[in-house]
Amino acid sequence: MWLRFLFFIGLVISFSAKAEEWNDVAWLKLLHYEKNGSSYVSLVENDEFFISNGGRYNAHKEFEQTIEQFNKKEDAKKCEFPARFIYLKNKGLVEGSLDKCDDYQKFLADVQPKAVTMLFTNAYMSNPSSLFGHTLFRIDTKRKGTQLLAHGANFGADTGDESGVLYALKGLWGGYYGTFGIKPYYDVINLYNNIENRDIWEYELNFSDDELELFVAHMWEMKTAKIRYYFATKNCSYILLLMLEAIRPELDLSSDFGFYVAPLGTLKKVDSVDGFIKGANYRPSRQSKLNYRAEQMNDNQYEVFIDIIKRDEFDLSKLSDDEKSDVLETAYQYVQYRYVEGDLELKDYRKKSFKLLQERSKIANNKLFFEELKDGENPIKAHEPNQLSLSVGFRNGEAFEEIGFKPLYNSLMDNSYGLLKGAEIN
Fold it and tell me: Is residue 79 within 8 Å of 223, Cβ to Cβ?
């Protein structure tokens, strides 16, 4: 009789423990549930992201029906949601593998994940939604050679062709959905480095092998997710913090942000986690490279460079042979820059490029002496985005006091280290 009683108690305890696992913070963060009164609601709004009917509003029901679905012999649902399968299998609640998930396995074979890197691009003044920079992920690849073959994962608003006042209002009040897109990293570099002329900073994250596996699986799941996008709050940078919390549930990166979320602020928040960022790498834009080359010119070189790019005059007589190659190389890069910017027609681009290469071929010593830009000002070390100030002084012989608050960005009186030069707001 005692054995039956103990067995019954054991079953009750086991059932209670299982019943409460839906409330595990790791499960809630993996499906991006947030507290809403006495219940939870997921930020993801489309039904395709959930297994149960109404799963967005019922984390408990979603948990139970996911286990039930995964324990069936069919593989379709667990192949669609591999991160949830990995999580539940680690809990001992489901069995099986993802080996027969053909599309997912092809994705893994293509990506060949090695690590995860967080990217920060500086401000882009031609796009209101990018005035304060942008953050995204890179799934680093095991392929030998360059990370150009890695994949960038970006969360952005699907705004269509809208612009103007309607674009601003809908962006501020959640009129757009945000979605994840994954594309080759060389396309990311071409967009930000070459077309938009934005520096890219790469920060490798310190993930364990299990965390890396879960991250890639979760990114696969999120490719169909639609989340209401708010330019000031639940924007690209905020959602990236939630992605990191889903992989490492003990992290609390997102709760400190209030009325606005700036990309630089989220980057600093990630950096505040001890040991989370393993290292930083700088990838300068085409414009930054050109500016750095121009800074290395002496007066004669700069004068000849201006004559070439402004007046198509190629009088190199005042330069030594060692000085000529760098000037012509810089002019050639400048012509490429103008063509990408859309300032040159294709026929003019070809004509100018051919002339520069022709002049370059006449030089006996084609060695380049200018250094290439390798180091930049790490934005993590820039000042905090918000600032409270108290000023006292005299103006026109009268004393004054002034209290100021700057919620975002950089003013003319601030130290602009790590921030885009010439983009100060006063």
Answer: no
Is residue 205 within 8 A of residue 276, CB to CB? The reply is yes
Do residues 219 and 182 lie in contact, with contact meaning Cβ atoms separated by under 8 Å?
yes
Could you tell me the two tokens for 304?
A: 């000849």
| Whole-number Å distance between alpha carbons of 16 and 7 | 14
The tokens of 79 are what? 């192949």
Please report, as a single letter, which amino acid is at residue 366: N
Task: Read off the pLDDT band of 124 (50, 70, 90).
Answer: low
CA distance 251 to 239: 14
230 versus 3: the higher-pLDDT residue is 230
Q: How far is CA 341 from the centre of its chain?
A: 23
Q: What is the pLDDT of residues 324-372, one digit of tens each?
A: 999 999 999 999 999 988 899 999 999 999 999 999 998 887 888 999 9
Span between the terminal Cα atoms of the chain, in Å: 81
Name residues whose C-beta falls within 8 Å of residue 154's C-beta, 6 or more positions apart in sequence.
Answer: 136, 137, 180, 181, 182, 183, 188, 236
Element (H, E) at 325: helix 321-341
61 three-state secondary structure:
helix
Structure tokens at 36: 């809403």
- Helix, strand or coil, per DSSP, at residue 393: strand
**Is 104:220 a contact under the CB 8 Å cutoff?**
yes
pLDDT confidence of 129, banded at 50, 70, 90? low
Nearest to 238 by CA among 178, 182, 195: 178
φ, ψ of residue 180 to 5 degrees: the values are -90, 140
**Dihedral angle sign, alpha carbons of residues 18, 24, 26, 31:** positive
Q: Per-residue confidence at 131, pLDDT binned at 50, 70, 90? A: low
